[in-house]
Amino acid sequence: xxxxxxxxxxxxxxxxxxxxxxxxxxxxxxxxxxxxxxxxxxxxxxxxxxxxxxxxxxxxxxxxxxxxxxxxxxxxxxxxxxxxxxxxxxxxxxxxxxxxxxxxxxxxxxxxxxxxxxxxxxxxxxxxxxxxxxxxxxxxxxxxxxxxxxxxxxxxxxxxxxxxxxxxxxxxx
Length: 173
What we know:
Layout: E1 22-28, E2 33-38, H1 40-47, H2 51-55, E3 66-69, E4 74-77, E5 82-85, E6 89-93, H3 98-113, H4 123-151, E7 159-162, E8 166-169
Antiparallel strand pairs: 1-2, 1-6, 3-4, 4-5, 5-6, 7-8
Helix pairs in contact: 3-4
GO molecular function, one term: magnesium ion transmembrane transporter activity
Protein name: RNA SPLICING PROTEIN MRS2 MITOCHONDRIAL
Family: Belongs to the CorA metal ion transporter (MIT) (TC 1.A.35.5) family.
């Protein structure tokens, strides 16, 4: 054991404070957004989440798409959108992915335009609804692209996406 004391390996990172900060986008109920640098411990305390829930959001790990309902937050790890939704804010993992940018701009726009109107859904459900809508649209686009590559012809509409009704299946005979 003593042989390893004082060992200095230049390629290895030490674990400790200050490491592990990630870039997140915080969107509040008014549609205001800002970019934050947060570490896992801060997010865990703020949202009352265990570390295993945050592991689902880590882009270095591969997990199936998951939505977890916790006491104070919803953890959504979908295709390109990974976020924590609370009663009054969305903490979205910052990424250069177009889906993340689209989520942020669309959600902020929806919140700011619907400020005067009485919404029938709570904030957290509206945030989750948009994440699911964008995921369905992304999967639909991938499906169409795969069909085009496979057959060389446009997609035959056996799947149809409607922003209000979600992804629907129609039998084509």
